[in-house]
Design goal:
This is Phage tail protein. It is a single chain. This protein is 0% helix and 54% strand. The chain is built from no helices and ten strands. It has strands at 8-12, 15-17, 24-26, 29-37, 40-48, 50-57, 73-79, 84-92, 104-111, 115-117. The strands form two sheets. Strands 1, 2, 3, 6, 7, 8, 9 and 10 form an eight-stranded antiparallel β-sheet that branches. The protein has a two-stranded antiparallel ribbon with strand order 4-5. The chain is globular and about 60 Å long.
């Protein structure tokens, strides 16, 4: 029986961060848009940014400011089944709000390029 993806691992600017369940990744690329013309439908394409959403855990000794919005950095996303994506031009949309429920910090990254690595 094949194993399916269960956990995503996140590295932001070379540092590993533990994440709670529910992380997601959408790769950047072209997306189709619909244009209705009279009684027919056409399509046109636009570019959509990649998006990674994860709730990282801020542990003792870690800086909340590591998730600043001032610069671009490398984001790596890896699964336990061997797939990995490297986004060298990732950036954080908004500084996260940390909660006192175990240091949860929901973070959303966007990126324009990626490289996929398969096991």
């Amino acid at each position: 029986m094949a194993q399916s993806i269960g956990i995503l691992k996140i590295w932001w600017r070379g540092k590993y961060y533990e994440c709670v369940a529910g992380s997601s990744i959408k790769l950047p690329g072209m997306s189709n848009k619909t244009q209705v013309t009279g009684t027919s439908v056409q399509r046109y394409q636009t570019f959509s940014a990649g998006e990674v959403k994860a709730t990282v855990i801020l542990n003792e000794g870690m800086s909340l400011d590591a998730f600043d919005t001032d610069s671009v950095g490398e984001l790596q996303v890896q699964t336990l089944t061997g797939q990995a994506w490297v986004m060298p031009d990732a950036f954080i949309l908004d500084k996260p709000t940390m909660t006192d429920e175990g240091g949860k910090c929901p973070v959303t990254w966007n990126a324009g390029t990626y490289q996929e690595i398969l096991k």
